[in-house]
Design a protein that fits this description.
Chain lengths: 259, 429
């Protein structure tokens, strides 16, 4: 029987911690069968074999922070039939986007003795600020099950079934008692997209927003609630400014609070 | 063949972005350039102004492969600043957590990143076609390390459960029971993996390293101990910055961490094992003898055996800690912020990881200093490549390139970790 060529997968890295691409290697039970169904044509963290494009599906990790990467992402887009960003860096700038609220030259000087050698952009921006993106998978890090769902969906040409609702729904499904209502613990769950499995409330702490804003998040209302729970304006500003600080809803809310 | 250039634009099977250039002139290696083009993310800068209670969530994001190492150095440095000494059960639970990371990170390196070099495959997936059992076994082992992390940390990557002063939630004995069952299998898989790796063809090689690792009065080191070396260094973590500095090397784009007294040194499994073999239980030492792992291993290619041995040890140690575990009456010592400086050094899978935090009286970070293992090993890696390439110049370019790459992967470098302070320059001609 003639075999159709397997779809070709590529995995790319920009400014990031490698954790989202590691999620693919953390699919210990699925990895070998996945590698039979598709041709892992470019995945530098895992293989010396680096095949030239084009690729059917590119998974892109990391944000754009250097002039060279701003050019490289154009080439990646050009070589990819579908481009999916994986993780908070690629979809919302990542923790390194905190430079967007500061002076990057001062940041460089704080870390490097010769900051003038560091070639860096003033901002850390998501991939979608540079090229069209076919799907954005959230999370810091992404969820393994969601990653497999996205890969499967693109392989058979359907839309990935990734819910956009808030972490609160997930807590209800897990029967986790609300940490904010029951214990007065500030929690970003009501404005954060689900996907992690609502881990933090299940461990007795408030959600800290690593999947970014949910659909239609009422960040102003949650900020008022945090204030009434005793948080300072400065602390409220900071909770919206972590791993998804370049996501519009979180950025705006963080700017409404300050010192 | 007298003059030639070997260039690897993107070194595969390491975490992060780097390239290698080797110039051979008149039959000898003239220059080695390991360039890091991983973009800097400025962690030391962005930590300033954040609260002490935010440290662990932020520093985890330096590395997706070893986030627990960052959380362990971070939590102990902040607790050192705030004068918190956690209860023994909390200490034991953190050691158990670290065992999970050693298992998953080492298993990843052994099978996915390093073993393909010895057996001549581009990656573990290609290797699995002929060594399916070994790859599946190591993946299962990695999975069991991850299961332990998931229980104690909430998730494998960027776990959420450690906090300054303790944990948010501690597991019950019933929750740990199935993990212990799985770890018993993992232990067997780890021993099989060690025996499998012991059969690899190892290039002859003896390097003269100064080993640096932690040393604890009775334990194989993880979260606690003095910083010692094979040349007699013996200091507390708080004295790290008086003995070690970062130096800018003219030919390199990177800052290298060196010892003020003697320069280049090696951290990681080979150093830990050489300096702490006597802290391993007798069964583990017997296993080392069985596979022919010498008490002080100076052949970097054989580091894979030390990693495999440490995985067996981490399984054993995890089982011991679980057997002794009693749920805690008090999983938290409430922190009281104060103006102070705190230091800690712990043993990440890749070697010692140093953190310092200067806090103001409200607990806000004024200054942070982080020195990851790969920054410390970078000089050794370049020296290894230079010397090993010199001894292998009769190889064809392609084989020589593979040999150079392997000598880099011997040290499991994590470029993502190192890059937040490494100099950045893309050198492509």
């Amino acid at each position: 029987m003639a075999r159709r060529a397997r779809p070709r997968l590529a995995v790319w890295k920009f400014a990031s911690c490698d954790g989202c691409q590691l999620t693919l290697l953390d699919c210990e039970d699925e990895l070998l069968s996945l590698a039979r169904q598709l041709d892992i044509a470019y995945f530098a963290e895992a293989s010396r074999r680096m095949l030239r494009g084009p690729y059917d599906l590119s998974l892109v990790e990391g944000s754009i922070t250097t002039p060279a990467d701003a050019e490289r992402v154009q080439r990646v887009r050009h070589l990819s039939r579908h481009l999916v960003t994986i993780g908070a860096c690629a979809t919302a700038g990542g923790i390194q986007a905190l430079r967007n609220f500061a002076d990057v030259r001062e940041f460089a000087a704080a870390v490097y003795p010769n900051p003038e050698y560091v070639k860096t952009l003033a901002t850390s921006t998501p991939i979608s600020a540079h090229v069209p993106v076919d799907f954005e998978l959230r999370g810091c890090p992404i969820d393994k099950g969601q990653l497999l769902e996205v890969i499967k969906a693109f392989l058979i040409g359907r839309k990935p079934a990734i819910p956009g609702h808030s972490v609160c729904h997930e807590c209800k499904l897990r029967s986790t008692v609300c940490v904010m209502v029951a214990r007065g613990t500030p929690c970003l769950g009501p404005v954060t997209q689900t996907g992690c499995g609502a881990i933090c409330p299940a461990y007795g702490r408030g959600c800290y927003g690593c999947f970014g804003p949910a659909e239609t998040p009422n960040t102003a209302a949650i900020a008022r609630e945090f204030f009434s729970l005793g948080m300072t304006e400065r602390d409220i500003g900071r909770v919206f400014r972590t791993f998804n600080s370049a996501a519009e809803a979180f950025r705006k809310e963080s700017e409404a609070h300050g010192e | 063949m007298a003059n030639r250039t070997i260039r690897v634009d993107y070194i595969a099977r390491v975490e992060g972005e780097s390239s290698l250039e080797l110039h051979v002139r008149n039959g000898a290696v003239d220059a080695v350039r390991l360039s890091i083009f991983e973009p800097p993310r400025f962690f030391e800068a962005l930590l300033r102004g954040r609260g002490y209670e935010e440290v662990l969530d932020i520093v985890a994001r330096i590395c997706g492969i070893c986030p627990i190492a960052y959380q362990m150095s971070g939590v102990h440095a902040v607790e050192n600043a705030l004068g918190i000494k956690v209860d023994p059960p909390i200490r034991a639970l953190r050691r158990l957590f670290y065992c999970g990371e050693w298992i998953q990170s080492h298993a990843l390196h052994i099978v996915m990143l390093h073993a393909p070099d010895f057996l001549g495959y581009p990656d573990a997936i290609a290797m699995a076609r002929e060594h399916g059992d070994a790859v599946e076994r190591a993946l299962a082992l990695k999975k069991r390390g991850n299961e332990l992390i998931r229980l104690l940390g909430g998730r494998e990557i960027h776990p959420i459960n450690v906090r300054i002063g303790g944990f948010y939630r501690v597991p019950s004995r019933a929750e740990l029971a199935p993990v212990a069952e799985a770890l018993k299998h993992a232990r067997d898989q780890a021993i099989d993996t060690l025996r499998w790796a012991a059969g690899f063809p190892f290039p002859e090689c003896v390097r003269d390293y100064e080993f640096v690792a932690l040393r604890h009065p009775d334990e194989y080191p993880m979260n606690e101990g003095r910083i010692v070396s094979s040349a007699g260094l013996d200091i507390a973590a708080a004295d790290y910055e008086t003995e070690f500095i970062e130096r800018q090397v003219p030919h390199s784009t990177a800052l290298h961490s060196v010892m003020k007294q003697r320069g280049t040194y090696l951290v990681g499994p080979m150093a830990r094992y050489a300096l702490n073999r006597d802290r391993l239980p007798a069964e583990i030492r017997a296993l080392a003898d069985e596979v022919g792992l010498e008490p002080v291993c100076r052949n970097p290619f054989r580091s894979i055996l030390v990693r495999a041995l440490e995985v067996v040890y981490a399984c054993d140690e995890a089982l011991r800690l679980i057997a002794a575990y009693e749920p805690l009456p008090r999983p938290l010592i409430p922190p009281e912020p104060c103006a102070a400086v705190g230091y800690a050094c712990t043993e990440a899978p890749r070697g010692i990881l140093y953190h310092r935090y200067n806090l103001d009286r409200g607990g806000t970070i004024l200054e942070a200093r982080l020195v990851p293992p790969t920054a410390q090993n970078q000089s050794v890696i370049e020296e290894d490549v230079r010397d090993l390439a010199n001894a292998a110049l009769d190889l064809e370019d392609e084989a020589l390139q593979a040999h150079c790459e392997q000598s880099i992967r011997n040290h499991d470098p994590c470029i993502s970790c190192a890059a937040h302070f490494l100099k950045l320059q893309v050198r492509r001609e």
